[in-house]
């Protein structure tokens, strides 16, 4: 019996999130999502969402079409490893050559969810494939794409970060920017996201690290290693990525061969290299074999297809809201501004509490009462700071917290002085009244 069944062999990539203009910058196509997620045999099922994200023309749609081929193959073929099918069968599914979808920044879903059976429990889940794309060539596009990528990371159970040639430093920095962004939009403790897989295309140095997961792990360990002599910023990026995801993996993909550059190339398996085919046979089942499928969790709970519709909408609303800081090219700048604003707001709360109690009131208070008031206002300010959503590395967040504490402590002598001045005035007034009485 087949454990994975196509719900109709026809299908297409449907754009479900678009980058617009004006106040509603990111738009969800609710109707399109409903058509995919609210079908009778899909809506109540847990979902497995596999997303492929990265720059244009990186071979994302091409690889997604091999995912489709596996998912739509009978279980017997999946088990026998002959799901790649006929040698001369053109590769179909998401458009991977030309086509108008190609240059649209946004998120696309495959129109047909595929039902698969979890090996552990026998439960049927709906597998959704997501294609996310954008560019990283100007400040504006980086800001926009951070949101699109953040959104796809939030929605997916596996985020595949499609890279060309190697894992480069700016790839890691972009990843940090968009995962930081994503983290702001979600509540709850613990790791915000599930699995991240670096998929390095056209990996040439296989004498150094072999193709596949084994070489990928070596490369990843090397690239994500935190060394004490590293520049703090590089270390931050690495620690950040490790702290965001439950699992981080890497797969090194060989070049598919020179035929892919030919005009007539239509994705037939016979036209890609043996190495590429072997790599597909290792990669694709590792994602979709019924024993490997991981349903999407949010705050520890399973997400059903119909819930996913709400999540799309909710996350997009958050990214559209004024409460969300704007992404800028230099991530650090945003982080600093964001932390400074949180410090400022906390200090203002402290000041308003102290003013109310100690400055505006006509009468002075005892030193003891003043100190208690300071403690309460300080605690409220620190709570406010901690509760704010902040962009930034944990060390920076702590550094700003210490700065806030110092500022608040420095305020106390001022308030004490003001209060003492009132005591002096009161004493002087009392003395004068007494002298007047005596004198009079
Ligand atoms: P997307 O924009 O990321 O979705 O890229 P596409 O999947 O449309 O592929 C763009 C081009 O890259 C196509 O002409 C493919 O033939 C080619 N291509 C696909 N996979 C690979 C790969 O692994 N390496 C190289 N060099 N080219 C690829
Ligand atoms: Mg594409």
Principal-axes shape call: elongated
Average residue-wise pLDDT: 83
Individual helix count: 12
What structural class do the secondary elements suggest? alpha/beta
Distinct small molecules? guanosine-5'-diphosphate, magnesium ion
Helix content: 40-55%
- Span of the ends, CA to CA: 112 Å
Rounded Rg: 29 Å
SSE string, helices as H and strands as E: EEEHEHHEEEHEHEHHEHEEHHHH
Strand count, sense and barrel status of the largest sheet are: 10 strands, mixed
Instruction: Count every beta strand, where a strand is a DSSP E run of 2 or more residues.
Output: 12
- Unreliable residue stretches: 1-8
Proportion of residues in β-strands:
15-25%
Short description:
About 50% of the residues lie in helices and about 15% in strands.
SSE layout and pairings?
Elements: E1 4-5, E2 13-19, E3 26-28, H1 30-37, E4 47-55, H2 60-72, H3 75-80, E5 106-110, E6 114-117, E7 124-134, H4 139-155, E8 158-164, H5 169-184, E9 193-201, H6 213-224, H7 232-244, E10 245-252, H8 274-288, E11 297-298, E12 301-302, H9 305-320, H10 331-359, H11 367-387, H12 394-439
Parallel strand pairs: 4-7, 4-8, 8-9, 9-10
Antiparallel strand pairs: 1-6, 2-3, 2-5, 5-7, 6-7, 11-12
Helix pairs in contact: 1-9, 2-8, 4-5, 4-9, 5-7, 10-11, 10-12, 11-12
Bound molecules: guanosine-5'-diphosphate (GDP) and magnesium ion (MG).
Residues 56-62, 96-97, 102, 133, 201-202, 253, 255-256, 260, 265 line the site of guanosine-5'-diphosphate (GDP).
């Amino acid at each position: 019996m087949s454990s994975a069944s196509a719900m109709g062999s026809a299908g297409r990539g449907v754009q479900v999130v678009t980058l617009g203009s004006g106040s509603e910058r990111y738009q969800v196509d609710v109707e399109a999502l409903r058509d995919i997620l609210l079908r009778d045999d899909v809506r109540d099922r847990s979902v497995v969402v596999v997303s492929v994200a990265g720059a244009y023309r990186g071979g994302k749609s091409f690889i997604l079409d091999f995912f489709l081929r596996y998912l739509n193959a009978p279980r017997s073929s999946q088990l026998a490893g002959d799901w790649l099918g006929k040698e001369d069968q053109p590769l179909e599914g998401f458009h991977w050559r030309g086509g108008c979808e190609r240059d649209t920044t946004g998120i696309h879903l495959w129109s047909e969810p595929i039902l698969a059976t979890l090996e552990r429990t026998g439960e049927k889940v709906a597998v959704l494939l997501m294609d996310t794309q954008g560019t990283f060539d100007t400040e504006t596009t980086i800001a926009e794409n951070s949101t699109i990528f953040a959104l796809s990371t939030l929605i997916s159970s596996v985020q595949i970060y499609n890279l060309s040639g190697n894992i480069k430093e700016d790839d890691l920095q972009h990843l940090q920017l968009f995962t930081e962004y994503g983290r702001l939009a979600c509540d709850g403790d613990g790791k915000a996201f599930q699995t991240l897989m670096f998929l390095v295309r056209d990996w040439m140095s296989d004498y150094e690290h072999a193709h596949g997961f084994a070489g990928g792990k070596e490369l990843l360990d090397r690239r994500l290693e935190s060394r004490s002599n590293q520049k703090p910023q590089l270390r931050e990026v690495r620690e950040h990525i490790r702290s965001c995801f439950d699992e981080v993996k890497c797969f090194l993909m060989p070049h598919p061969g020179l035929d892919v550059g030919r005009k007539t190339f239509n994705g037939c398996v016979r036209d890609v290299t043996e190495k590429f085919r072997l790599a597909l046979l290792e990669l694709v089942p590792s994602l979709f074999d019924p024993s490997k499928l991981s349903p999407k969790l949010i705050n520890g709970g399973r997400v059903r297809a119909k819930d996913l519709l709400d999540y799309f909408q909710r996350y997009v609303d958050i990214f559209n809201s004024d409460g969300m800081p704007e992404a800028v090219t230099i991530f650090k700048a945003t982080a600093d501004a964001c932390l400074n604003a949180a410090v400022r707001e906390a200090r203002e709360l402290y000041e308003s509490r102290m003013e109310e109690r100690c400055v505006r009131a006509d009468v002075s208070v005892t030193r003891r009462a003043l100190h208690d008031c300071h403690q309460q206002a300080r605690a409220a300010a620190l709570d406010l700071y901690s509760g704010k959503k902040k962009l930034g590395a944990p060390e920076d967040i702590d550094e700003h917290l210490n700065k806030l504490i110092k500022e608040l402590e420095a305020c106390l002598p001022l308030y004490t002085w003001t209060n003492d001045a009132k005591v002096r005035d009161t004493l002087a007034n009392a003395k004068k009244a007494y002298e007047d009485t005596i004198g009079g």
